[in-house]
Design goal:
The protein has one helix and 51 strands. The protein is an all-beta fold.
Amino acid sequence: MNKPFLLAAALFSLALAVSCATGGNAPPPPTVTIDDNGVSVAGVTLSIPMTASVSPASTPSAVNWSITGTSCTGSGNPCGTLSNVTTSSVTYVAPSSVPSTAQISVTATLQANSSVVGTLNLTIANITTQVNPALVPVGQNLTQQFTAVALPDNAPQQFTWSCTVNGSAACANFAQDSKVSGLAYYTGHDTCTGACVAITATPTLQPTSCSLGSSNCIPANVTPETSRLETGTYAYRFSGYDNSGNPLIAAGTFSVNNGAIVSGVEDTFASSGFTKNSISGGSYTPTTSDPHNSNNGGTLLLTGASPTQFQVVLDVAGDIQMIESDGHGSGWGIAEPVSPSKVFNKAAQTYAFGLTGVDSSGARTGFAGLLPISGSGTINGGLMDVNDNGNTSNICGGSPCNVAGTYSADATTAGLWHFTLTTAVTQHFDMFVANGGSNANSPLNLYVIATDPVDTTHPAVLGTMTLQDSTKTYNNAAFNNPSISALTGASSNVSLTLGNPDGNGNFSGQFDQNNNGTAVSVSTFTYKYAAAPASGGSNVGRYTFQMLGNPNASPVVSPLNFVLYASGANRGYLLDQSSSAVITGTMAPLIGPKQNGGIFANSSLTGTFAAATNSSSASSVTPLALNLLLTSQGNSTFDVNGTQYPPGTAGNVAGTYNITSNGTGTIGLTAPATADYILYAVDATDFYLIVDGSKDKGVTSGILYVSQ
């Protein structure tokens, strides 16, 4: 009866004896690792120092170096050479031209055991240059800064610049900076039509690269204009506080003729109630405090509006970021040229929207939803979620509530529409057609403001409505690429999230939060999301997302539940359904720079940027407006310069920046005051900033939107 047990015991003893005889605690096999300080692309003729490390430490560490690759045979060192060779280090020198197969490998072979090899893969590429901004209007007598960057990042940042009009004549006023080779200034003194001024920077190390094709030397194209304010119509929205800390919201439209503001209308809610204002005129005055970048900053005056004066910064698309500067309060907003195409109400359309404001007691309130319009004045089948100071059912009933209604164009003001929506209560809104079109990557936007007298079921709210991409099926699979979410809640609670939905309901990523001066930074979270079908069963674009929380806290802080109404794949409007913080915001697709294979690098962000506060929930947060200049000095140093305007701390900006491959990074300023920011890029020309509360402890923050 005991024989099977005895046999098993004997086999176990034998196995143990064999294990001991062969060294059960034997050291792991040796490995060789090559370190090149993160370089994966080798520019032609460039030198890359490398070191080899061998583990475990007791292993003899001497290695032999070599280069391998499909095109590495023949004369002339087609794959490059090795210099400064030692048994632990080497300098790889790239060839003078790209071999027929651009991929090569540098190997380090252990001298004591030739079967142990470390390999580093490199891609050989021409040294190319990009001038930013790539396409920009420049006002008469105004100056625009241009930056050049040589790629790959480790290429020398030394350039020869040129500026031509209509392909031949030299520009009237163009100069390279005397200290920074990758910086130049153009002043609008040339008379020509369209994008007729071309600005090029050629790398001095490889001047022939620009003749190898336009993709190797991308110029900037300039359109001379009379004024930085386009002739036509602008729509705008504004949120802020008066000098007593009472909230103020406004939305409107104004018309421009040859740089002069001639008329406009505005809806405003202030402590005195709701009013309609007539804009009788106004002006735009370019800045004198930043003579090197007067093209992108100035003062906007809207006579008859409330507020009436703004410090503004402009991006290359002509969008105007604005902060109040009339001394009657503080706030922030945006004005954009109205789309010339007649997209709105062209046919049956669906819009996603997000609105934020206050109820009759001053508590924070948020709306998010979908609004299908018929193209003939009726609304049916809409959905909406509400959070009023933590209550999700007192305004429109259970979430989501059904929305119907009617809409009509204003009788006198082009681009103004009046909407009547019926849920549990009837609510009225004005909507101003803004920018965009039917393209899913640049959809039409409208600015929305509530017009009812404020009471317990009619809060004062303001926000944006965006044309939904009708080509998508809004199921879990529609959200399957990285996104950036910018969120704001009560009492100066702001956060930025890099999320990765997988198309199957799993949502992972990282986030940074500044909650009234307290920092929360989570490098890895794993949560859930789900498409939430409407009552009829169709996926119309409503989702639930888990966000924020803190899985690293003890005890764990559970994530908040959000509803998202999608305007397209990986984009839409977010509303917190869990808390009285009433966290609202947007989700946008994360798009890596094409010129760098979709991977972010410091060179991706060089250029001039307009930056301003675009979201906050506390009157104690001082809005900021800045013209930022991001340049490469070479030697992997990337600087931030520019101008910061009143009413914040004014002065010249100085500091450095750094961005990682996934688009997150930091900006550290030393002037006009010390400030540390966390950066989340949306793409190569747009990113968000919040104050890094882990470094600037106790410092509250709004969200700054930065756009080239």
